[in-house]
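HUMAN: Can I see a protein plus its fold?

ASSISTANT:
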Amino acid sequence: MGDMFRSEEMALCQMFIQPEAAYTSVSELGETGCVQFRDLNINVNAFQRKFVTEVRRCDELERKIRYIETEIKKDGIVLPDIQDDIPRAPNPREIIDLEAHLEKTESEMIELAQNEVNMKSNYLELTELRKVLENTQGFFSDQEVLNLDSSNRGAGGADEPTAQHRGRLGFVAGVINRERVFAFERMLWRISRGNVFLKRSDLDEPLNDPATGHPIYKTVFVAFFQGEQLKNRIKKVCTGFHASLYPCPSSHNEREEMVKNVRTRLEDLKLVLSQTEDHRSRVLATVSKNLPSWSIMVKKMKAIYHTLNLFNMDVTKKCLIGECWVPTKDLPVVQKALSDGSAAVGSTIPSFLNVIDTNEQPPTFNRTNKFTRGFQNLIDSYGVASYRECNPALYTCITFPFLFAVMFGDLGHGLILVLFGAWMVLCERKLARIRNGGEIWNIFFGGRYIILLMGLFAVYTGMVYNDVFSKSMNIFGSRWVNHYNTSTVLTNPSLQMPPNSSAVGVYPFGLDPVWQLADNKIIFLNSFKMKLSIIFGVLHMVFGVCMSVVNFTHFKRYASIFLEFVPQILFLLLLFGYMVFMMFFKWVTYNAQTNFQPQTPGCAPSVLIMFINMMLFKNTPPSKGCNEFMFESQPDLQKTFVIIGLICIPWMLLGKPLYIKFTRKNNAHSKQNGQLTGNMELADGETPLPTGFSGGEESGGGGHSHEDEPMSEIYIHQAIHTIEYVLSTISHTASYLRLWALSLAHAQLSEVLWNMVLSLGLKMSGVGGAIGLFIIFGAWCLFTLAILVLMEGLSAFLHTLRLHWVEFMSKFYEGLGYAFQPFSFKAILDGEEEE
């Protein structure tokens, strides 16, 4: 957790690597995943960099792997999962062997695929011919009666003009796609002026496309005509509609003989196709065992060459120079990776790493684990923290699920979240292997620890509210005693239980279950939860303002503590903190057990009215026998607090601009001398301090430098911040009332579901009642999960997120940094899988 308090300290390093050790060294750095490289060749075209040939080589290998993977998936072969044994980046010799193996496999697959397409095309043609011969049996009568001849028969081609001249009909037979039949008929009618007689029959079973394998629905047709000219026209139309023409004898015996020959050829071709499929499956099964490893190796190799393209070659062409951001804690790891990379290739000249000074803002790196990663993602969604700025994720681990639970306080619904979160946490290794779960599942699984904590806190607040699916538990026994007799209870629809006589103590934990039966339950809970919302809200905002001191202290902006933090915390505490104090004071002072009338519950003043009167300097006449104020010196104390609060406004408005104006005048002369001497006056062994990390009043943490900014803009900027803080203090306090509103809405929805759904089934009796209860219970469970857990849970989650982003983090968090994106093989492979 210490690493989460603020982002890690970063160092800008310069590394010098020998060309022969560059590949292995970068490979080792990719395995460690703790270095973010900078591009030293920004002005160089991507196609003119040193390792562009190797990158193209990797692209070609990826293309071959994608082609083989497509063929494997087409055959339904499952690729093995190698999450537990991820191969390292290949060495140059392995690259050559891998390239040769992929080239051989691709060539073999292309040859097999082409042969298969050719054989399937022949198979399709023979199948269509068989279908034509079989379906045209009903199109022909006895040849001696009709005296027909086929226009497609080569043997009768010499006598065909003479036969047609004598009045005999010719015909063509073939197959056409079913969706083109009607247009085909219209075209034949138009070109022949109605002198073509067309008969057709739809095929019952679809045929398979040889190239794609998709089913094709076709129709067998026979077109009868007379005349050579009309025959040529019909053939042209068939060609235009992509119809396949096949020879069809008009003689029944010849057709039968031809069908037998075609079936024999089909059986032979089917056998050859089966053997080809078996050989293809064996080849793909052998390749599929190594394909995932090859894919990872090629991706790593491509990432290495992409990274090497960010390096710069020195003038002697004997050394590669790179710049990178490295967490200072990982500097020994990086140096060891460079040493291992040089040793792997036997380089005699070691690679070395230099830390250089810079005035650039480093990237922000918060080291997380599987528990804290979800909370850190919530913060980064708002904005990445400025470098070394206080990280709110550390406190969000507790405040986020707690504020969620205040709105989602139900023991039963909390247990549902606990079970769901615990299932994902306990089975996370198995569930992490799910690849196609969808975006929603990835969000749920990524936030599994958040869901678990939200459920645990919801169970706790449900116990405080004593609310389980809108019902209460009487664990310790109610502390309210009924003094009425049985007849009084039975004859009166409502009875009053005065707390001075009916209450005999305090319920040990949570809300007394007797409030479940009270008519004024909602009135009591409204007051209780509304006050809790204000109390938690003010405490949350005070904590956020106090966190700004941590940033001011770290960045040595000590003047801002007095000029910004002190007036802000005074304004917040003296007004809204005082209102919280009055709530506690009212709870402690006024009770039903006292005999002193001004301290009885009937004389308790309204905290809201008292706060409004305090701000407007007004008075409200008290009731007879009551006091207007809770204690004697309260009016003077309230006036003092309001006056000090009003003084804080010009304090925030003018303090910082005047301080900047004063310090600018005093530093003007010394700054000019410093610009002339530069770093020439440094003593031996001293290192020039970068401007960005000087630790000055306005540096670091996203702080804005005011050295060159006109004073008018500084005044305007500070005025905007002052107005924003004053108004937001009021609006943000009211915004925390959403805790009360959503808690009340959740409880009322739960009660409505119980009374209007489940209670109907519980009132039924007999066998029909049991069946009805079973159905109604299922409906109640469905509505509970869909409305109260999913929809209400999502609503409470979003409102909690808003309370942290706006009300809490706006008090101290700037979020103007940029994320640390290291060169990591794990991150690259995970990104590929998500896409």
About this structure: The longest strand covers residues 10-17.
